[in-house]
Amino acid sequence: MSKIVYFLDIDDTLIKTTSITQDHKNALKNALDKLRIEKAEEIVSDFSANYSRLYASHQGKFLSVEEKKSLDEFVKRLKELEKFIIEKYGEIKIWSREAALYISAEKYGIKLSNSDLSNLSNTLWNKITQNASFYPDTLPFLDYLKTNKIPFYLISASDCRLSMDEKTGYFEYDPLYSRDLKLKRFKILYEVGICEKQVFVGDPYDKPNPWVFIEALNQAKKDVKGKFTSIMIGDSVKNDLLPAKVAGMGKIIWLNRNKDIVNKISEEYIDTITSLQCAVR
Length: 281
Ligand SMILES: [Mg+2]
Known about the structure:
The chain is an alpha/beta fold and 281 residues long. It has two domains: 3-16 and 133-157 and 207-279, HAD superfamily/HAD-like (Rossmann fold, 3-Layer(aba) Sandwich), CATH 3.40.50; 22-131. It contains eleven helices and ten strands. The protein has helices at 22-34, 40-58, 65-81, 83-89, 97-107, 114-131, 138-147, 175-184, 187-190, 211-223, 237-247, and strands at 3-9, 15-16, 133-134, 152-156, 162-165, 170-173, 199-201, 228-234, 251-255, 270-273. The protein has a six-stranded parallel sheet with strand order 7-4-1-8-9-10. A two-stranded antiparallel sheet has the order 2-3. A two-stranded antiparallel sheet has the order 5-6. Magnesium ion is lined by residues 9, 11-13, 234-236.
């Protein structure tokens, strides 16, 4: 039997991830109040609305004409603010909390400083990290991999941590800084014996760019002696499965936890499972 190496997405595959919760909003509001920034309530509400629309659109959910219009306006401003990043890396950092917060404050005539943005974004990410938890089938699956000495690597999207250059008024991106912050907040993974070297993050080129999948696959080729079959498991067809295929992975599995028939996929090479338990042989 040929060797198997697994490549696993993290958010919505191993760890429960939500859009914006009330808990996140409260933390953000408190942080804005502490910084004595006016219109805290309005800023949080606008940020949350923009973010929910972005997340819904990412998940392929229906958006009304009004929602679509608001989302387009948001992305247009994001593109302006990230002008230099887009020029350099060829892609927009769409999930940047710093940029989204900046845009929401700007709507109420408030210019957030780089230090405010960093403070607020840290608050939000700390809250997200605190609330992170594994799905019930995650630890049994990781145990199965460990017990059977099956190598595995985790592939995660970038947190898109940006900073505002107050002189130019544009956002800047340091891939190492962004990656470092993301790796630091994966304590939940290290606690169950996963090491940092197994985790691949989409900095500088984020999913759905196949770059991070190629990086992980190359590492596996170095670590695992001889031929192996690579298996990718992820919840997002666009962000996990299509790029894994482009990167040259052998088997592609869609983890459809919500049994979401709306987004049913037609690609022949993709197998579907509804729980990680199904991947245990
Ligand atoms: Mg995911």
